[in-house]
Write a structure and sequence with these properties.
about 35% helix, single chain, elongated, Rossmann fold, Helicase, Ruva Protein, domain 3, binds S-adenosylmethionine, disordered N terminus, two-stranded antiparallel ribbon, alpha/beta
Length: about 300
């Protein structure tokens, strides 16, 4: 993971968080917003250290923060001002209407990835007890969401990162999802069986892309973001191996960068997929390319 020296910016002179015995929720909210954070983030951080809900931050705004809460809040505000993602500070991010635990070991779920879920559910329509494989599961959002939305599905999920799998397993437990997790280099440790659907959101940012040094990406695991090459290496590997793992008529869905739609369609067509299509995300960018395994005799299991 990319590490950045973080020198906490100086907090305002009026910093009341130095053991103020009468610091109220109202004072704390005002101070955090005054330190330069948006009001919404101020509410989230004060809510996090006090355990108060958004409504309680209003109805109990005269509650006093104890010393430990003040120290924790000061630390969180410093880290946020230094650019650390809110999701890592709160330890949670919502995806497809469900809360997922996240931490520095996993990619922070993106709303754009919901388009993969929508298309995956459409691909599974009419299939009873479908077998689903999620490659590079990270926090588990794709595998767990599909397992929750389709409780009859048999879902496997892989990642090469033990830290990611630990978080994914915890999320599956919290959300009551039945998923079999595997430590695996793409298809390497996947059991020799066929799937109705393979989904993946692999690392697809090219090495040297300036976005890797900006915003939240600076704090996310670099191996979850980039293939350290042209951005297409992992998409190529997954597309090339998919037909030997899919049932005839099964689907492959791959998330990719906004400018990789044409390359992804080419990869799937070259690999032998039919009905190749690309789905756009909420921002109208090409985001997810899929294709169907031909109906003729499938390739031997590899
Ligand atoms: C872009 S993240 C996606 C995580 C999650 N699916 C999501 O959409 O939020 C890519 C994931 O692929 C995993 N990964 C990278 N290389 C891998 C490999 N060779 N085999 C399996 N997983 C890999 C990373 O650890 C990371 O969790």
């Amino acid at each position: 993971m990319t590490q950045h020296p973080v020198n906490p910016p100086a907090l305002p002179d009026s910093d009341p968080l130095a053991g103020n015995p009468t610091l109220t929720v109202r004072d704390a909210l005002r101070w955090v917003a005054g330190a330069g954070l948006p009001v919404l983030e101020a509410r989230m951080l004060v809510g996090l250290v006090t355990g108060l809900t958004r409504t309680q931050l209003i109805t109990r705004d005269a509650d006093v923060l104890d010393h430990g809460q003040q120290q924790r809040l000061t630390d969180l505000v410093r880290r946020r001002l230094a650019g650390e993602p809110m999701a890592y500070l709160t330890g949670e991010r919502e995806f497809y209407g469900r809360p997922f635990r996240v931490g520095p070991g996993v990619l922070i779920p993106r709303p754009d990835t919901e388009v993969v879920v929508q298309r995956a559910l459409a691909c599974l329509e009419g299939r009873h007890a479908p077998r689903v494989l999620d490659l590079g599961t990270g926090s588990g959002i794709l595998a767990i969401t599909l397992a929750c939305e389709r409780p009859d599905a048999l879902v496997w999920a892989t990642d090469i990162s033990p830290a990611a799998l630990e978080i994914a397993r915890e999320n599956a437990g919290q959300l009551g999802a039945q998923v079999s997790f595997l430590l695996s280099d793409w298809y390497g440790a996947v059991p020799a069986q066929r799937f109705d659907l393979i989904v993946s959101n692999p690392p697809y940012i090219a090495a040297g892309d300036p976005h890797l040094g900006q915003g939240d990406l600076r704090f996310e695991p670099v191996d979850a973001l980039t293939d350290h090459a042209d951005g297409l290496t992992d998409l190529r590997t997954i597309a090339a191996g998919a037909l030997s793992r899919l049932e005839a008529g099964g689907w492959l869905l791959l998330e990719h960068g906004h400018d990789q739609g044409a390359a992804a369609r080419e990869l799937l067509a070259t690999a032998g997929f039919e009905a190749v299509f690309t789905e756009r995300d909420l921002g109208d960018n090409e985001r997810c390319t899929g294709g169907r395994a031909p109906a003729e005799a499938p390739r031997a299991l590899s």
